[in-house]
Amino acid sequence: MTPSQPLQAKYLQEDEISQKCRDLLPLLPREKGWITTSIYQYQGFWYPPKVLSGLLACQDHFQAHDTDVLLITAPKSGTTWLKAILFCLLNRAEFSGSMQHHSLLTQSPHNLVPFLENGLYFGQEIPNLASFASPRLFASHLPYHLLPTSVKDSGCKLVYLCRNPKDTFVSFWHFANKMRSKATGEMPLGECLDAFCRGAYPFGPYWDHAQGYYKASSEMPERVFFLRYEEMKEDPHVHVKRLADFLGCPLGKQELMDGTVDGILRMCSFDSLSALEVNKSGKLSTEVETEWFFRKGEVGDWLNHMSIEMGERIDRVTQENMHGSGLKL
Ligand code: PAP
């Protein structure tokens, strides 16, 4: 890739989409994208073309198993962190006693817990998932109503992580600017804020995304676990234990005393993960640099980038779009 070529020319290439997606695009509402030239609205949510292609392939081909665990997030809600924690929880027997040879030391959480529409089903070929051991752990940014039918029909478990919309927005804006090449330049924050408030950014609208899973978790608490980034930050021990219970692998008496939870949280902390070589200088198959997933990892960083008025605007639009769901963000 030459320095003057926008990164998106290699990532999210529009000419690599499926014929099904290609036929669909002209029929869909279109907006300017933050990373790709355009994003398209499909069944109420917005996607870059290649992600839409992955979504359609995933809906057509992904067969969920009853034992699967899916981590679902809107982008920039703390996906990388929860991927690491869930991987540790579900594979803790393998690494009991010593974290020295833990897979997280040498592999990105995004490789250990791959995305569906945004990863495994991203290319032209239907992936072979036979090598994934049970319980399989995947991630997705898909809204609830667009999950593959097999996910809803199976007994698989969904963990949904959401984050304060103002921090989510600021995190996404930073990430989008990294994804854009120097030649394309930064997106003005105000322009992105307008789009965010209209819901027109990848996997938006934010509030519809969160509400879909909040409703599902209220109706099926044994299948859908609703968690907030901020509460994980405040009391991670409590929520790791709740997660283990939900996933059907509760922490035993011995584990509760021998520092297992401390070990997992230390391993998955922002400081530990971001200091690892694989997360400092690695690249995912999508060309995304692993260090872009680690910026600050703090609650309330939006105040360093937006005015109070801008924050109030996000609060107002979030409030207006809550439709009396009972969800407070
Ligand atoms: P994705 O949805 O595109 O996969 P995601 O991991 O949700 O990305 O977004 C990265 C955010 O999670 C960053 O937030 P920030 O921009 O506000 O800093 C990143 O710093 C944060 N993050 C990554 N790892 C951790 C961690 N171990 N603990 C807490 N926050 C983290």
UniProtKB/TrEMBL annotation:
Sulfotransferase domain location: 66-326
EC number: 2.8.2.-
Lineage: Eukaryota, Viridiplantae, Streptophyta, Embryophyta, Tracheophyta
Superkingdom, taxonomy of origin: Eukaryota
Biological source species: Eucalyptus globulus
Record keywords, A-Z: Transferase
Annotated InterPro entries: P-loop_NTPase (IPR027417), Sulfotransferase_dom (IPR000863)
Gene3D superfamilies: P-loop containing nucleotide triphosphate hydrolases (3.40.50.300)
The name this protein goes by in its record: Sulfotransferase
PANTHER family: SULFOTRANSFERASE SULT (PTHR11783)
Similarity remark: Belongs to the sulfotransferase 1 family.
